[in-house]
Amino acid sequence: MSLLPPKARHYYEPFVGGGALFFALSPKARQSTLSDSNEELVNCYLQVAQHPKALIDCLCKLTHSESNYYRIRKETPSNAMARAVRFIYLNKTCWNGLYRVNDEGTFNVPVGRFERGPIICQPEQILKASSLLEGTKVHCCDFEEAVADADCGDFVYFDPPYVAKHDNNGFKKYNERVFSWNDQERLARLSEDLKQRRVFVMISNSSNDDILNLYEGFYKYFVQRHSVISGLPSGRSLVSEVIMTSYGPPNLRDLPNTWRFD
Fold first, then answer.
1. CA separation for the pair 125, 170 (Å, rounded)
2. What topology does CATH give the domain 43-129?
3. CA of 56: how far to CAs of 41, 111, 205, 214, in Å?
4. Do residues 150 and 199 make contact, with C-beta atoms less than 8 angstroms apart?
5. Which runs of consecutive H residues, i.e. helices, occur in 153-260?
6. Which in 7, 35, 135, 180 has the greatest CB count within 10 A?
């Protein structure tokens, strides 16, 4: 948490994904905006926020098996609740929780392998998430549109699809289709623009020279973690990542005990 700005007026998280930082910060209602270009993900967040009990009821009725997985994977639900149920079920039961679609936009991740049955529904977590999302703005849009209203004193966290180096498993081609190098450059220009507007900006990305060169003038903090994508333990090597901020290293003595909004 020490890399966060000490306070902010409003929190923005495009590329929200699992929303790990949003849920860790637990910002107050009406002081945060989440967004993503994935319509199914955004719909899921909206159903969690607006209809958590109905969502829990539907998920609790599901049972898991390989045949059920591929049957549900082939379905194309027409209503918002059924789409959210399908999205969560596939996320909980697919290989490594990966979200990937083919050229036709069809989810194509194989079924996961579990020593014990997967946990499809966690009611307490859904209710807690719903409470935190209450009053939060959730949009399906491009990242530039998502932060168009960001102003001085706001905090924007960008966690885009990383530059892929998985040359032999198809992920490089997939990531390029989802988020191209032109998008990476566009994000860097936007981050610089926000910086000039005195918005607090944090970006996480893979650590390589091409990415680092896009963010001259940003503070950089390097970290390593074990990759969890490979299906083989031998492929889960350490990967280098970087966290970049538009603001300087914090003086830890000046930080409040809990991160806050004005």
1. 33
2. Adenine-specific Methyltransferase; domain 2 (1.10.1020)
3. 17, 22, 34, 43
4. yes
5. 171-178, 181-196, 209-214
6. 35
Q: Which CATH class is domain 7-37+141-261?
A: alpha beta
> What is the average pLDDT value for the chain, to the nearest integer?
87
Contact 64, 120 (CB under 8 A): yes
Q: pLDDT tens digit string along 78-110?
A: 999 999 999 999 999 999 999 999 888 899 999
DSSP structure class, residue 65: -
The percent of the chain in helix, strand and coil, each rounded to the nearest 5, is 40, 20, 40
Cα separation, 64 vs 40, whole angstroms = 21
The answer to whether 127 and 23 have CB atoms below 8 angstroms apart is no
Cβ neighbors of 216 (< 8 A, separation 6 or more) are none
pTM of the model: 0.87
pLDDT, tens digit, 9 for 90 and up, residues 188-245: 999 999 999 999 999 999 999 999 999 999 999 998 876 655 555 555 567 789 999 9
Q: How far apart are CA 122 and CA 124, in angstroms?
A: 6
Cα(200)–Cα(21) distance, rounded to whole angstroms? 15
pLDDT the model gives residue 225: 74
Answer for the pair 16, 43: CB distance below 8 angstroms, yes or no.
Answer: no
> For residues 213, 214, 217 and 221, what is the CA-based torsion angle, rounded to 10 degrees?
-70
4-38 residue pLDDT tens: 998 899 999 999 999 999 999 987 757 999 999 99
What local confidence, expressed as pLDDT, does residue 255 receive?
A: 45
CB 200 within 8 A of CB 156: yes
Q: Nearest CA to 122 among 72, 63, 61, 56? A: 56
